[in-house]
Amino acid sequence: MAHHQNSQNDRPRQYARSENSARLKGSAAAAPPLTPAEDRRWATLAHFGALIGCFPALAVYLVYRDRGPFTAQESKEALNFTLPVTAVMLACYILALVPAIGWVFGIIAVLLWVFMTISGLVAGIQCNKGRPYRYPMNLRLIH
To answer: Domain residues of the chain, as ranges?
Structure first.
């Protein structure tokens, strides 16, 4: 008898679930475009990310490149600048472990980080003003 009562109580609950799922919508196929302020903000953050290497610029480029033209342009510029510098910096950190000459590579890695950080801050400030920035020394690996 208890089993019969439970199945009767479950029926309205199951019906309510199917009714709710029919009303729920999934996410849109494409994300909405960025507003001009958001476009400038994400472009600026891509450059400021140079503080920690190429990963912030890569993330901004992959996520927002189709949503805002300024973000696409500036995150690609930031990624093209920070990717080779980050790779050389990581190689220097590994070579810094070599006895006797490692200290030279350690100093080079720190100097590269300072150069990358200052360059990223200068570029981010220009982007925040709405001005596109081109790094003077950039390989432009990603087109």
So the answer is: 35-128
